[in-house]
Write a structure and sequence with these properties.
The complex is a heterodimer.
Chain A lengths: L4 E3 L2 E4 L5 E6 L6 E7 L5 E8 L2 E5 L7 E4 L6 E5 L8 E8 L9 E2 L3 E5 L1
Chain B lengths: L2 E4 L4 E4 L4 E3 L1 E4 L6 E6 L6 E6 L5 E4 L2 E4 L9 E3 L8 E9 L6 E4 L3 E6 L1
Parallel strand pairs in B: 2-12
Antiparallel strand pairs in B: 1-4, 3-9, 5-6, 5-10, 7-8, 8-9, 10-11, 10-12
The chains are: A mainly beta, B mainly beta.
Chain lengths: 115, 114
């Protein structure tokens, strides 16, 4: 069964450093998303992406964050200058559409630790 | 805005006990409803879904019925196993903003003892 994959599974970085989290969505999906889950808290929407542009973003997704689909298969989340509070599990998701019958399929997540 | 409220955990049960995890939602539209499961150290897995009123989603012995009149989507399983120990998230699809995002509840941690 097709699945969303994410790399790396774990990333440790120093505060102020840039990180890039990578995702390979399901191949025939057109809509891509990032979510994050701070330890012990709920999963929160960050951003959705379609047709090479951001469709929607939350208030969490400030100027430090950016997303890109650099080629036909990868979808990346960049954090330019990491803060301690960016430590979280980051989930990528994809869907084939946005209708009522659609489901988002989630990757296994990247656990980011900012020191 | 749309939101999901689910019962606080942790829930601790003995093996073969009956499980109910309550979930209610607030939505201005007509969302699809989901249960996701997160096993220790792993990502989110879709457990089941329902897209319209009175639909019953089911998978791996778990089931939940979309109740529009009570805005609920309670998760049930007749006989839990130790391997069901995980965090369970109730969620809905939010289409109101013209986009598509999933709104999650806070999660309920389930411990099943042998």
């Amino acid at each position: 069964e097709p699945e969303v994959t994410q790399t790396p599974s774990h990333q440790v970085t120093q505060m102020g450093q840039e990180v890039i989290l990578r995702c390979v969505p399901i191949s025939n999906h057109l809509y891509f998303y990032w979510y994050r889950q701070i330890l012990g808290q709920k999963v929160e929407f960050l951003v959705s992406f379609y047709n090479n542009e951001i469709s929607e973003k939350s208030e969490i997704f400030d100027d430090q964050f950016s997303v890109e689909r650099p080629d036909g298969s990868n979808f990346t989340l960049k954090i330019r200058s990491t803060k301690l509070e960016d430590s979280a599990m980051y989930f990528c998701a994809s869907s084939s559409g946005t209708g009522i019958q659609e489901t988002q399929y989630f990757g296994p997540g990247t656990r980011l630790l900012v020191l | 805005g749309n939101s999901v409220t689910q019962m606080e955990g942790p829930v601790t049960l003995s093996e073969e006990a009956f499980l109910t995890i309550n979930c209610t939602y607030t939505a201005t539209g007509y969302p699809s409803l989901f249960w996701y499961v997160q096993y220790p150290g792993e990502g989110l897995q879709l457990l089941l879904k329902a897209t319209k009123a009175d639909d019953k989603g089911s998978n791996k012995g778990f089931e939940a019925t979309y109740r529009k009149e009570t805005t609920s989507f309670h998760l049930e399983k007749g006989s839990v196993q130790v391997s069901d120990s995980a965090v369970y998230f109730c969620a809905l699809s939010d289409l109101d903003t013209g986009g598509f995002k999933t709104i999650f509840g806070a999660g309920t941690r389930l411990f099943v003892k042998a």
